[in-house]
Amino acid sequence: MLNIVLFGPPGAGKGTQSEKLIEKYKLVHLSTGDILRSEIAAGTELGMKAKKLMDAGMLVPDEVVIGMIDSKLDTNKNAIGFIFDGFPRTIKQAEALDKLLGEKGTSITMMLALEAEKEELIKRLLNRGKDSGRADDQDTHIIEKRIEEYNNKTTPLKDYYAKQNKLKVIKGVGGIENIFQKLCEAIDNN
Ligand code: ADP
Question: Residue 86's domain is classified under what CATH number?
Fold first, then answer.
C-alpha cells in the first residue's frame, strides 16, 4: 500500500494537493477536517461539539478523530492506499494511526511536509474564507490560534516520522503545479 501523511500548517495547501494526488495515485483521501465539517453539516451531536472547538481554532479531542479514522479505514478495506490530510495532528494520534495500520498489516509509507511562511498562510486562509464561508478562516485571531496549536502540538510529528526515516520536506510556495511535481518526485523516488 501507499500510505501518505500530507503534513503542514493550516493554509499550506494540503487539501489542494490531496485532490491532485488522489487522482494520480488512486488513493483514498481521508481529511479529518472534511469529516468533521460533514458531521457539522449533518447536525450530529459530535459535529455540534466539534464546531465549538473548531470555531475557536482549537483541536478536537484525540479520541474523536482517532475513532473517525478507524471507521473510515474499515469502510475502505479495498483501498490501494490512503492520503491522511490533517491527521495525525498530535503524537497520540500518530501512535494510534501506527497501531491501526499495523493491525491491517500495513504502515505509513512517508510524511510529505509542506512548508510556508506565516504571513503567506494567513493571507491564503483569509482569501479562502471569503469563498468558503468557513468561520475559522475569516478571523485573524482564530487563524493565529490554529497556527499556534500547530506549532505546539503538531510540529513534533516531524521528528516522530524523521526518526522512522519517513519525513520529506517540500516548499509549499511557487505555484500549485510546481508543488505537485515536487510531491510526485518525492513519492516516485521513494
Ligand atoms: P486546516 O488544516 O486548514 O486548519 P482542517 O480542515 O484540517 O483545516 O481543520 C480544521 C479544524 O478541524 C482544526 O482547526 C481542528 O479544530 C479540527 N481538526 C481537524 N483535524 C483534526 C485532528 N486530526 N485533530 C484534532 N482536530 C482536528
Answer: 3.40.50.300
